[in-house]
Amino acid sequence: MADEEPKKVETETPSEPPPPVERVHEAPKDVTEEKSVIPLPPADDEEKPVESKALAIVEKAPECADQKSNEGSVNRDAVLARVATEKRISLIKAWEESEKSKAENKAHKKLSSVGAWENSKKATLEAQLKQIEEQLEKKKAEYVEKMKNKVALIHKTAEEKRAEIEAKRGEEILKAEEVAAKYRATGTAPKKLFSCFSG
C-alpha cells in the first residue's frame, strides 16, 4: 500500500520528481524531527492519536505504525513539492506579467514618441507649404497685376491705332468729298476711279 501511494503522488505532480527512496527509509528519529517541523493536518480524529503515538514511540512502534509514518512522510513531501511547484509557477507568472507590462510600456512610449515626431514634422511641412503658398499668391498677384497692365497697355495701343485709323479715314473721306465737289464744280471726271482705295 505504501508503494501505491507514491505512484499516485508522481502522477499528480509530474513537473517535480518524487522524493528519493533513501529519504523515506531514514532513521525514525529524523522522520519525527521533520514531522515536528511541518505537521500534516489530521484527516480523521482516529488517525491523529495513532500518529502522535508513532511520533512519540517511533523506536518501539510495530511495523504497521512505521508504514503509516512513511506514508505520512511521502504525502507531506508530495504536498511540499506541490506547494513549491505552485510557488514557482506563481513567481514565473508574476515575472511574465511584469515583463509583458514592461514591454507594453516601452512600446507605448516609443509609439508616443513616433507620433510626436510625426506631428512635429507634419506641422513643419504644413508651415513650409503655407509659406510657399503665400509666396506663390504674392507672385501670382504680381503677375496678375503685370498682365493686367500689359492688357491695359495693349488696349490703349489698340485704341490709339483705331483712333488713328478713324482719323485717317475721316481725312480721306473729307478729301474725297472735296475732290468730288471740285470735279462737280469743274465738270471734269476723275482720271482714276477709286484712287484713294488703291494706294
Automatic annotation (TrEMBL):
Domain Remorin C-terminal: 87-192
Signal peptide: none
Compositional bias of kind Basic and acidic residues: 1-11, 22-36
Family per similarity comment: Belongs to the remorin family.
Gene: LOC115973247
Keyword annotations: Coiled coil
The UniProt record lists the keyword Coiled coil: yes
Domain named Remorin N-terminal: residues: 29-83
Name of the protein in question: Remorin
InterPro entries the record matches: Remorin_C, Remorin_N
Region (Disordered): 1-52
Domain of life, per lineage: Eukaryota
Presence of keyword Membrane: no
PANTHER family per record: OS02G0117200 PROTEIN (PTHR31775), REMORIN 1.4 (PTHR31775:SF5)
Residue ranges the record marks as coiled coil: 122-149
